[in-house]
């Protein structure tokens, strides 16, 4: 039996969330609904606007971290590799991960520099727009991988955002190859439509000869496959992944378990903030399939969890709320 259900790797970012209106984004030329990489000066300039308004909600984040924390809150066993600096935000990040029950090798890879930050701007229609300064997280090297922990995991979970840095992409490819060589299943998330649209060649390199499990939303999947219908897209995705979860927003999700399609019903709610919905979907699903659930049961849990997180401000639920969903 493996020590960990999931070995995750991704950008380590301290998330800082604010509410905005569309005019704010338009006036500053910020493309709504996407993650955009920015330098620290531009990020600080944007944040100056919010000073005096009580500040934003702060949590350790990054897509992969949110997923592994979700898995841990459900009761799964997670390990996470990332890179933060030995600054105030870095120590906050490390402590937040450990308090969530996630083991890390952060202490071993801490270095000089600045911890990455993600400014998350949530619009009135609940859509999130992210301006990200990667800081030291963009230099996650192959040497930072904990191959012992990876070997002792059922899945390695690779965050698609790693494609934006050459160093991180190479580390993701190394993790993929090591997992394949050691009999560890590979799960990957596209993370954001911009990753598929602007970094497709890099994503192809990370996908390699195919993954065991792919997480994506409908827009990402259509950009990846070039198909225009959900049905055609799903068929084409079989060339990339043995199993996949394609989220369909208010229409629920479509799962392929390697032999048949499974439709997952939505849980209708009034969306307040979509930040972290896909991350928690992946965390809940990974928890389910590594802890005795069928793909259908794991998909239903993932759908419920993502509906809960979009109904409030912030990318996470409490540990108690995760346990309540399991007891339903």
Protein described:
This protein has 328 residues and is an alpha/beta fold. It has one domain: UDP-N-acetylmuramoyl-L-alanine:D-glutamate ligase. The protein is 40% helix and 23% strand. The chain has 14 helices and 14 strands. The protein has a 9-stranded mixed sheet with strand order 6-5-1-9-10-11-12-13-14, with helices on both faces. Strands 3-8-7-2-4 form a 5-stranded mixed sheet. Helix 7 links the parallel strand 9 and strand 10. Helix 7 runs parallel beside helix 9. It is globular and about 50 Å long. The mean pLDDT is 92.
The value of Rg in angstroms is 18 Å
SSE order: EEHEHEHEHEHEEHEHEHHEHHEEEHHH
Number of helices: 14
- Overall 3D form: globular
As a percent range, the share of helical residues equals 40-55%
Are there runs of 5+ residues with pLDDT below 50, and where? none
Sketch the major β-sheet: 9 strands, mixed
Give the number of DSSP strands.
Answer: 14
Oligomer: single chain
Show the helix and strand layout:
Layout: E1 4-9, E2 13-19, H1 22-27, E3 35-37, H2 40-48, E4 57-61, H3 63-74, E5 78-81, H4 88-99, E6 103-104, H5 106-109, E7 115-122, E8 128-135, H6 147-151, E9 153-159, H7 166-181, E10 185-189, H8 193-198, H9 200-207, E11 211-217, H10 218-225, H11 230-237, E12 241-247, E13 253-256, E14 261-264, H12 277-290, H13 295-310, H14 319-326
Parallel strand pairs: 1-5, 1-9, 2-7, 3-8, 5-6, 9-10, 10-11, 11-12
Antiparallel strand pairs: 2-4, 7-8, 12-13, 13-14
Helix pairs in contact: 3-12, 7-9, 10-11, 12-13
């Amino acid at each position: 039996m493996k020590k960990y259900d999931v070995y995750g790797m991704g950008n380590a970012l301290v998330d800082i969330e604010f509410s905005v209106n569309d005019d704010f984004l338009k006036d500053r030329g910020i493309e709504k609904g996407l993650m955009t990489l920015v330098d620290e000066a531009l990020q600080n300039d944007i944040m100056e606007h919010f000073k005096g308004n009580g500040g934003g909600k702060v949590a350790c984040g990054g897509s992969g971290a949110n997923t592994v924390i979700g898995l841990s809150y459900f009761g799964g066993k997670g390990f996470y590799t990332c890179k933060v600096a030995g600054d105030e935000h870095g120590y906050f990040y490390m402590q937040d991960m450990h308090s969530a029950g996630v083991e890390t090798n952060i202490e071993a890879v801490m270095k000089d520099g600045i911890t990455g930050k993600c400014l998350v701007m949530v619009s009135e229609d609940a859509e999130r727009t992210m301006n990200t300064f990667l800081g030291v997280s963009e230099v996650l090297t192959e040497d930072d991988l904990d191959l012992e922990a990876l070997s002792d995991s059922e899945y390695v979970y690779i965050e698609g955002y790693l494609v934006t840095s050459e160093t991180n992409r190479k580390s993701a490819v190394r993790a993929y190859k090591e997992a394949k060589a050691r009999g560890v299943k590979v799960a990957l998330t596209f993370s954001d439509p911009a990753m598929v649209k602007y970094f497709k060649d890099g994503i192809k390199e990370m996908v390699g000869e195919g993954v065991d499990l792919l997480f994506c939303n409908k827009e990402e999947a259509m950009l990846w496959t070039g198909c225009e219908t959900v049905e055609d897209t799903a068929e084409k995705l079989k060339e990339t992944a043995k199993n996949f979860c394609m989220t369909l927003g208010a229409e629920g999700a479509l799962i392929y378990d390697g032999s048949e399609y499974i439709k997952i019903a939505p849980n209708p709610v009034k969306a307040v903030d979509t930040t972290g919905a896909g991350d928690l979907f992946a965390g809940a699903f990974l928890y389910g399939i590594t802890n005795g659930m069928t793909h259908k049961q794991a998909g239903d849990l993932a759908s419920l969890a993502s509906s809960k997180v979009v109904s409030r401000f912030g990318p996470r639920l409490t540990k108690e709320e995760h346990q309540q969903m399991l007891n339903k």
